[in-house]
Amino acid sequence: RAYSNMFLRLRQLCLVAYDLEPVVEDLKAVFDIEVCHRDPAVAKYGLHNALLPMGNSFVEIVAPTKDKTAAGRYLDRRKGDGGYMVILDTDELDRWQKHVDAIGVRVAARLTSEGYRGLQLHPRDTGGTLLEINWSDGGADVNAAYHPAGAGWNTYVRTTVVKAIVGAELQSDRPERLAAKWSEILRKPARQIDAEWRVDVDNASLRFVSARDDRGEGLSGIDLQVTERPRVWDVARGRGLAVTDGSVLIGGVRFNPIEAKR
Asked: Which of 213, 214, 133, 222 is nearest to 170 (CA)?
């Protein structure tokens, strides 16, 4: 049973890349968005990063700055740039802690700083994608505080092209099994729609699909509500990016533009 008064939102999707800035520049150009924050605290993990708001959610890119990082090992294992983390926010983190303990899902890292706490769940218990649930003081207002994006992130929001992140795609050789696992963790039902499985959170759909390549289980796509798809495709092709079946490949992830209803 889901808690009736608790929100659970898709708030941030993290990509990992060998080289940070080319991916940042492609995202900025194709989607007409801006960097709102670069977090100096990730340096302790041997990383640098950039966060870019898309509506009131975020795409983050991290890249190693030294050898033998967890992110670097993930890059090697998945054969290059690609999806890394799915990050949800909530107002009831303690309840989620009790729930994951009860179902035997390990916490790989507990994140704590002023006005912010997060649980990164162990990828061996969640499938090939790191899953994080976090809480920000004052974060119930989706346009207000969200600690990982820095102060004043909402002054950087541009919605000329992208209105919102509306979903994430996770690929697996056994998508039905991965969907069932995430359904259990997130206390949301898994349902089959055609050839894919879905688990819905408050503001987005997590889609579980059969793997289309040999890169293994992980975050493979991001669904975006956009104002006009042809503009996205034209800019992407102009930058030499692959556009296949309407999806734009940036940083090893398929960005799937969905036309916003007028």
From this structure: 222
Q: Report pLDDT digits (tens) over 201-220.
A: 999 999 999 998 888 899 99
DSSP 35: -
CA distance 259 to 155: 24
Task: Tell me the whole-structure pTM to 2 decimals.
Answer: 0.95
Q: Which residues pair with 58 in a beta bridge?
A: 12, 53
Sheet hosting strand 82-90, strand order edge to edge: 47-54, 57-64, 8-16, 82-90, 130-136, 116-121, 107-113
- Look at residues 130, 163, 160, 139 and name the one whose alpha carbon lies nearest to residue 60: 130
Residue 244, φ and ψ in degrees, nearest 5: -130, 125
- Which strand (E) or helix (H) includes residue 100? helix 93-102
Per-residue burial over 30-54, b = 16 or more CB atoms within 10 Å of its CB, e = otherwise: bbbbebbbebeebeebbbbbbbbbb
* DSSP structure string for 212-255: -SSS-SEEEEEEEEES-HHHHHHHHHHTT--EETTEEEETTEEE
Which domains occur in the chain, in start order?
8-156 (3.10.180.10), 162-259 (3.10.180.10)
